[in-house]
Every structure is written in C-alpha cells, then in structure tokens.
C-alpha cells in the first residue's frame, strides 16, 4: 500500500479549514455519484483483439453446505484488460520500439510483465475532472458523426461554451456521443470498424496534452478517431498521449448521463486494479458532485 | 451508467457553499490517497477455494507493428473474484438456502448469474470511513494474536481511544494487524489455516452491524476470526453481515500504513467492477484525506 | 488410470495370432493417420454460447534463463469444452430435467461438476469407424445444402454405396460437407445461424442409434440439422442420442480429406481429456489405416 | 486436417493381408486400452510455474430450457498446457537462445505463438510403445528412490529383463514408480521439490535418444531426475531430447497399472490437441493390446 499526494497546480490553501475537513463535510452532506463505467457482461461489445470477457459461477449455493446451514457461491472471470471501461498504462503502446521513458519496449516486458510502466504504477486518482461535451458544442447534442475527427477548435468551443477551463493535473473526458451505441444489439456497431468512430486525432490529442492533464478519457473503445474501414491500423493519439506526453487514456466510458445532467466539472475518482506488470486495467471511474 | 445519491444520516447543509464546491476545493488543494488494496501478482496468498490469479501478455511489443512504427502489448487475466482485495456482494453467502432478501439462493443463480444481488448491484461508495485500529487499542500495536476473536469491547475501546464514533452509512475498517503477513514468503502464513487468524466473531459482527454501517472491511482474507485448524468451516460474521443485516464485507485490505499514519477518519472511496451477476469483485479501495 | 475392454460384437478370434500381435504388426508395417480434428486457433468459428478459445504465452524464451543457458516458454489457455472439435458427455444434455441414467440433471451437477456422467467417464475409444459420405451418395459430393435434413434413406444409401454396414459398438461419422466452410474468413458462415446447417434430424438420429454405435460424429458444430434462423432452439438429435439412447456425439470434425481419399472404414481412435465432471472435452480423433 | 504416414524402420509387409485388415481385425477381436493419462481435477498436483487448472460450469441444466423441455450444461476451463499429463513441443525449451531447428527462440515466438515448432506441429502418434519398468529391473518394483538418477545401465537392464529392445521411431516410457504419489493428499510430495524426484539424467537421456525413439515419457512432472532442493534449476535431459535430438517428452503419465499387468510392449496412441503455436498440449495417451 502506498500513499500518494495529488496537488493541482495553482490552488491555494483555505485558511482555517483543512482539506480533510472539506472532504468529510462533503461526504457528510451527501454526494451524487455518476458511474462512468460500463457493466461487464458476457457478449458486450469489445475489440476482438483482446481476450473476451467471460464469467461463471464455479460454486453455487448448495454445492457445499456448512455445518450451520451456511453456503456460498463464487466466481471465475477471464478477460483482457482492455475490455469494457478500462485505462491504458504507459506500457501499452510503443513507438519505434520505445516506451514513454525511452526504455526498450521488448526488453521492458521481459519476464512476461512490465515491471516499470505496468498498470500497477498507475496511481489512484482523485482529481478535478472536466467533461468536454463536444456534440453539444457543435449543436448536435446527440453525438458526432461516425468517423468524425474532433478538432482543437471543437475542444476549445466546448471549453468556452461550458466555462470549464482545463487545469494542469486534471482529468479531461471527451464526449463524442458514440457511447449511445454501446447497448446496440449488433455489437459491431459500437466497435465501428466499417462505419468509423468519432474522436480526436493527432491534433486534438496534442491540444489535450498541451493543457497538461493527468489523464484523458472518451466514450469509445479506441478513444481516438477511427476512419471507416481503418480499424486500429494507426493510432496517432495513443502515440502522442501515452508515448510522447505521458497522459493516461481511459476508454469505453459512459458519459451520456453526465452530459444530460449538464455536469461538466466534478471530482473525478479512478482506482485501477493494481495488476502487476499489466498493460492496462478494467476500471469504473466516478464523477462526484454534491447530492 | 447510473447516478446515485449517498447521504450520511444526521448531517446538515453548509450554507453558502455547495457540496460540489467543497469537493472541488479539496481536490484543488491537494489530497493524500492511501491505497488500501493489495497488488495482484501471480503467487500471492489467496484462498485455494477460488480460482488462482494469473496474468499473461498475449501480445508484446513487436509482435505486431503498425505501418507508422507503433506497436502495442496487451493482457489476459483469469481469476476468482474473491482473490486479493475484494468486496463480497450480497449474492455471495446464503443461510438455510436464503439470501439477504429472502429469495431462494439456488434459484437466484439460475442462468449462471445473480441478477438481483450480484456485484453489479454494489453501488460505488464515497462515504465517511473509519479505521478501528484494534491492536493499538489493545496495547499491542503490531497486531492481534493468531486466532484471536476481536470483541465488541475491543471495538468500543478503539472508538474511544481514537475519538471516532461510527455514523450510520459509514464504512468501518477493522485492523487486526494480520496484514503484515501478506508478503510472507510462505503463502500459507497469511492464509492462516493452521495458526488461525484474528478477527471479529459473531458478537463483533453484530456490534458492527448495530452501528449501521454501509460496509465493513478487514486486513484478512476471511474478514472474521478463524480458529486454528477450522478454516472456513463456519463463518458466522458473514451470515450476520451479508445475510441478516445487509452490510457489505471487504477483505484482504492493506491497513497498516493508514494506521501507522494515525489516520482514523477519512473519505472512503470504493468503486467495484460492475461484473454482472457475480458474487463479488476485486477492488482497490482508497482512504482520502488532505495532502 | 483404468484399463478397459472394447469388444465389437460378432467377431471371432484369429487362431494362432494374438490381437496384440496384429496391432504390433500393423504399427510395424506403418499406418496412415487421418487427423479428424480442427486446429485450435484464436478467432476460429465456434458457438458464441461457449467461452471463446484463447491462448497466450505467459513465459517466452529469455524471460528466465537457467544457469546453463537453458530457457523455456509456456502457455495459458482458456476455453469452453464445446469449442473446436469436441465430444459431448452424457452430462451435457437433459430432457425434462433428467439425464441418460434417469438422474435429476440439476442435482447431478451439485458441487459444480457431474461426478457420474462427466467427461471423465468417457472411455478412450479404439474401435471400428465408418464414414458415411452422404453428399457423395446423394450425387453432390461437395456437400449437402444449408439446412438440409439428412434422412435415414440418405444414410442407408451411403452404406449401400460404400458397402460399409455399421456394426454394434462402431463409431459412425456422418459427413455433410459443411466442414468446407470451417476456414471461411467470415466465421458466421460455418456457424450457419442464418443459412441453416445440414445434418440429421430426429429420424436420422434414431436410425443411427438403431445401428447400435458407441458414438457418432459430424463435420458441423451442432452435429444435427439446423433450420435457417433457428439456431439451437431445439436439438432433437441430441435428445435421442445423449439422453435416450446413450450414444456419444462428436462435433466439428474434419472429414473432407478422409472422404476425398475414399476411406470409409478404418480404426477410429479418440482419447478425450479426462476433465473431471465436465460436460464435454476437446478432442482430436484419428482415422487409422495402413500406410 | 492432414494425413500422415508413420512407418517404423525395419519392418516388412505381410503378404496377402493389408495393414488396414490387421487393424480392423484387431479392433474387431477386441482391444484392451490402458489409460496412461491422469484425470484433470481442481487441486491436482502440478508445477506452480504453470497456470493452475480450473473448471466451472457456466451453464447448468435448468439455466435455460428449450421449448421442448431440453436443457444443456457447459464448461469453461483454464489451464497451462504443461499441467497434468502433457507433451512438450519442440518450442518449449531453448538452449543459448536457439530451438531445435537452430532458429532464434525469441523471434520464434513473435506474434505470441510458435508458428514453426508449436504444439500444432506434433503429429498424432500410433506407434510401437515400450515401457521400461526400471524399478522392477532394479529389484525394487514399487519405485526408485527420491532423487535417484536412472542410468543407461538401468535402462539396459530393463530392456534385457523384459526382452523389449527399442526400435527407431518407437515411443519409450520410463517408469520410475514416482507416479504412486500423484494422489497423495499433500500435493507437494508428487511435485517433490524438497525430496527430489527420480528420473533419467543427461546420460540416460542421451542413451534414450541413441535408440532413435520418436518420443519418450515418464511418470513424473519433470520427466528427468530432480535432485533434492534443486527444483527445475537445470534440466539437461530436456536439452538433450527437445533441443539437440528432436525427441518429444511426455510428462506426468500413469504407468503403474501397465507395469503391474506386465505389459511392456504395446501399440501406443497419442493425439495432442492441435493448439496453434503452443509449447505443449495436455494429452491422454493410450497403451493398446489385445483384450
């Protein structure tokens, strides 16, 4: 167990009331939690590049009954880590054989795990979060078009419309509206190989990185723009964010309820599973405001 | 995605400053996060009753290189949900064939998952948390003896010593000190079948439930007292908490750092994976205070 | 380890030469082995009702090097047992809540495994095998039409054309020709939900059972006829064979090479994994003749 | 599906009777099959270096009932391939970074699987098999001592005592007697880290290879001699057989029943799962003689 300190730049101390007091007062008054994660269910849409999510009950009630009449059921799950709502660790992507810290990507995984940049090195986050509702800023609140590349101008327009500038160390969530297809009976729609998927491209990723966030996220599987038929052939935003600028990426988030409630600024909480040496972790991020 | 409201009973509103403001001010000033979860590593101590945790990299960097020189690595994990730091859902335990809500436990799992009381029904938590450092209250701060049953008097002594009464809706973490054996090279030590493991028994669990918490947790695999050689033959605290009183149980937590820092009251955050119909979920809970 | 005895009815002893001698002479002269199984590969066509097959190398060469310069790589696999070429155990299917032996199907799985009729009770087979090349008998050697129901008359025609009567205790393989779609780039073609899949229906299954075989097999996932759009809504052949008549079913076999070689009678060998209490096992059956 | 030809050197054709006739006559007369594999059960002894075997029933009867009253149960399994009775592929072991065919071991696994020397390249075997009952030859029929190295002289003594010379292309099974501990309630006994395990060493492996077999096997997890406390620190027999001489190794076999029956020569059958690119496969080998 480690203790870590998160301090957003440019903020001062409130005299007389400790931060702990503020936290305790907030939870005392009551908070509203927006669940930004997707349920993990068999058959949910996910990239076919990753092991499918499966769940079973090895033991059901009655399989074994204790002397006092008690019984228990348990689970087995098997899955890729980039399945459902998840966060990419810096070990996930390399460019020209190098990771973020300049290390050799192939050697970094020697032993079958990434000791230096694996998911276990992603510190839990309790930070200021900003939702950039891009479709609303574009006047098409339902969502962006398939394959649409969200530009720096679009992102700025959202900031302007919402009045939510991004501070260094924040977590920025980019809503494309594509999440509305997550529950579609045809899984391939949300995956969007043929149609393309909206999201930032290299320019938008660079603009985001320039705001100095700690992490970014989106409501699509791949986070960034996929052109129709391209699949994951090139992922420049991943390169910019994970390899060049050191910004975590959270994917397949559920952002529509947050947007519908008009909540653009919140306490963002994310606590990844500390999977030693992994390239990512399933997560269930939260946007927390007052009740 | 759902939005939920958490309000601890008996708290009033602070005029003039919204709860959202309090939260944003807190994260702005900077928070210190205590990670209450254990890393997930191959070979870590866990109950043999549950599928072992395993991790592998199906894809390593270089296995597939994109046209622009980018490459990615990914993971497969397989595990039981009651492995490592985890939370028990109400579907986990039954008594005389019934679950918490009186439903038939065997029928509740029809279809291979618990639609009503599965892990997906555990709402994410952002609540007041209290750590009861029992060994410190007993004058043996390193830890309780193997197989020691923590009594209501012990729990009250901790509350008294710390000055941290428990409020309804809080999350109460009971430190036994047994967590110091988690990293022992002999896995069986932490599992403690032969030695027994300290923890509350039926009386302590009842006392806890009477304080009206939303969830309780401990630094042992089984949460409750295990007598030497008994293993999991009877688990009365599970019955009291999960089946009778509707209080979640979090197990195998890391509590020593929190105790060493003397932090007994904090904002507690836990966001379980929404594994549909499961009996539990691996978690990485957080204790958050000011930086 | 168990030893079992297989004797096909109606055969006599050859004086002077033991059966062991015959076997040793055969292997001494050289045998030709037709592999009737499909390779297990990620992404192969399989029923979505069963956990997907996945494979990864947790350890690659160089991850750990021994003092003498040796190194090893290993695997993790996760799969359903009814994936790829596999055999159904009698525990697999029930009718009106009963298994083959009249036992209660729900109780039979208490404890999370079928102690009485699980895959571990399928004895390894070394028996006379007969391939019924139905498309050839019908004059359309490439294959039967999608959704075509192979009738008793069709099966008899194949026996007649080939001159291979079925003896009690034999293993009968029914070729539909559908196996030619196994490697199709569109996985859904072989699965055949929309198109339907050829195979025997209730009548053909009954005819087969009346010949007294020990097991039957086919080159489709479901063994029996699937009407277009029906999927696995009703599977009468499974009922007849597994629940009523006690005949094992082998699915997703590769039979085209055997048929192309005109081999209709052979020594059939199948050795399922002895997965305790499972409902089936992946297998790699063999048809063996002289070289 | 592939057809392959296996011919043991030095054997002639029997005029007038085809090999196929011999095979069909043998199965017609009735064969006795000795199962040389171990059941796959949760908790069975296995090397901790490999993912544990687990099995569960995702679906039990009644979870889903068809319109006609039929229902099915199915499985999920997860395991390493070097678990239980299994065969090592040539991809499994390297020496100084090279595999059997001189290829670079690290590059050979690029893409996460061994395309050239993986388990899918192990042809199914129907060959003459020889059991060398070493303990019986040594006068201690129950078994060799823990950590005893079986020497070329021991192997020759067994051949001599039994009158079963080894021919090129045969499969040679070396019984140590250690298999009697497979079912021991203390799993660590069969694994034998502390006690050591009997088996051939480099000299015995070389002697075996010099006989020209196609594969060898033993009744221990590691096939070769393990000195007390050494574990798998060096495995010279693996190097000799898999990397230098190209002889497959089968491990954790059940050989005691075969030995007790005095069967030293038989038709040996082994059909590995064709797991693409894997380093091994679970198997259930058979020794077949007349009934």
Tags for this model:
291 residues; Glucose Oxidase, domain 1; 20% helix; 16 strands; alpha/beta; 24% strand; two-stranded antiparallel ribbon; homotetramer; 9-stranded mixed beta sheet
Give a verbal description of the structure:
Four copies of one chain form a homotetramer. With 291 residues, chain A is of the alpha/beta class. Chain A has one domain: 3-Layer(bba) Sandwich (Glucose Oxidase, domain 1). Chain A has eight helices and 16 strands. Chain A has helices at 19-29, 105-108, 134-137, 152-162, 187-191, 202-210, 236-244, 256-260, and strands spanning 3-6, 31-35, 54-59, 70-72, 74-79, 86-88, 93-95, 125-133, 149-150, 171-175, 199-200, 215-218, 248-251, 265-270, 280-282, 286-290. In chain A, the strands form three sheets. Chain A has a nine-stranded mixed beta sheet. Chain A has a two-stranded antiparallel sheet with strand order 3-5. In chain A, strands 9-11 form a two-stranded parallel sheet. In chain A, helix 6 (202-210) runs parallel beside helix 7. The radius of gyration of chain A is 20 Å and the shape is globular. The two termini of chain A are 31 Å apart. The relative contact order of chain A is 0.21. The model of chain A is unreliable at 8-14 (pLDDT under 50). Chains in contact: A-B, A-C, A-D, B-C, B-D, C-D. Chain A binds chain C through residues 43, 48, 51-52, 54, 56-60, 62-64, 78, 110-112, and chain C through 43, 48, 51-52, 54, 56-60, 62-64, 78, 110-112.
The biggest beta sheet of chain A reads: 9 strands, mixed
What's the CATH topology name of chain A?
A: Glucose Oxidase, domain 1
**What oligomeric state is this?**
homotetramer
Total helices of chain A: the number is 8
CATH architecture of chain A, please? 3-Layer(bba) Sandwich
Q: Give the helix proportion of chain A (percent range).
A: 10-25%
């Amino acid at each position: 167990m480690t203790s870590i300190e998160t301090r957003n730049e440019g903020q001062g101390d409130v005299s007389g009331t400790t931060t702990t007091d503020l936290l305790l007062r907030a939870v005392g008054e009551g908070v509203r939690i927006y669940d930004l994660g997707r349920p993990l269910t068999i058959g949910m849409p996910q990239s076919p590049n990753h092991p499918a999510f499966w769940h079973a009950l090895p033991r059901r009630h009655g399989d074994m009954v204790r002397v006092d009449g008690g019984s228990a059921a348990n689970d087995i799950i098997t899955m890729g880590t980039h399945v459902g709502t998840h966060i990419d660790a810096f070990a996930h992507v390399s460019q020209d054989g190098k990771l973020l810290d300049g290390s050799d990507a192939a050697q970094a995984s020697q032993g079958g795990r990434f000791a230096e940049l694996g998911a276990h090195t992603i510190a839990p986050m309790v930070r200021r979060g900003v939702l950039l509702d891009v479709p609303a800023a574009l006047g098409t609140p339902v969502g962006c078009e398939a394959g649409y590349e969200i530009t720096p101008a679009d992102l700025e327009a959202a900031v302007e419309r919402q009045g939510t500038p991004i501070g260094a160390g924040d977590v920025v969530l980019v809503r494309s509206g594509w999440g509305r297809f997550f529950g579609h009976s045809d899984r391939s729609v949300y995956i969007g190989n043929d149609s393309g998927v909206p999201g930032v491209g290299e320019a938008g990723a660079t603009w985001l990185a320039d705001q100095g966030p700690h992490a970014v996220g989106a409501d699509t599987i791949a986070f960034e723009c996929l052109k129709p038929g391209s699949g994951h052939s090139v992922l420049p935003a991943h390169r910019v964010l994970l390899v060049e600028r050191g910004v975590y990426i959270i994917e397949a988030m559920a952002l529509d309820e947050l947007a519908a409630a008009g909540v653009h600024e919140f306490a963002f909480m994310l606590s990844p599973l500390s999977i030693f040496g992994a390239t990512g972790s399933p997560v269930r991020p939260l946007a927390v405001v007052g009740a």
